[in-house]
Amino acid sequence: MKNTHVISVENLTKVFGDFFAVNNISFHVAKGEVFGFLGANGAGKTTAMKMLIGISKPTSGEAMVAGFDVKTHPEEVKKNIGYMSQRFSLYNDLTIRENITFFGGIYGLKKNDIKKKSQDLIDELNLHEEADKLVGSLPLGWKQKVAFSVSLLHNPQIIFLDEPTGGVDPITRRQFWEMIYREADKGKTIFVTTHYMDEAEYCDRVSIMVAGKIEALDTPKNLKEQYNVASMNEVFLKLARNLE
């Protein structure tokens, strides 16, 4: 793994009224790293990610993503990343093929490239029979797999995944992580939020957010040794107790 930082965050803060949703967080992510952004629901993970992908302006602090300042060049950030939201990723009233074509156009791909990438994606996921079915008819796990693949259409070097495995079964979760590893092996950087603590074991490093602050950041192995426990779930529980 190279030491080049593709995400650099210094004292990043987001305030709504007098509520600190994200409170003075700092961290760096290296090129090719699978970086887990962990925390319970409401810890501030999604708010932080929205700042990093250029759709929410920080109240204060600095963040550089893919070489661009998220405050002054949010559109350049968006062009250079892939993003998959838990709540909205694909249009349910379009077919898989139509979704691929639509998002390929948004990403600025040429028609021939869209056509080739569409077929490559359908072949890779073995969706030949489903390609012309409405996305709304697909099981959630398949929707998420397709959404992840669509976020890669323009070959971004950084991929942001917001709770990508929320609500899917354990087998699909494992398959999804296999897809993540394949992209990481190609040198892509994966920034993934999750509240499933067992998924932290799949990451190179993890941060744990509690009430808007990063309270722990290290490799899963080092965190388990630090807290003298056997699992990341126990790390989180012990950390939460220590902060009470």
Automatic annotation (TrEMBL):
A GO molecular function held by the record: ATP hydrolysis activity
Main location: membrane
SMART domains: AAA (SM00382)
InterPro entries in the record: AAA+_ATPase, ABC_transporter-like_ATP-bd, P-loop_NTPase
Topology in the lipid bilayer: Multi-pass membrane protein
Domain annotation ABC transporter: ranges: 7-236
Name of the protein: ABC transporter domain-containing protein
Organism, scientific name: Maribacter hydrothermalis
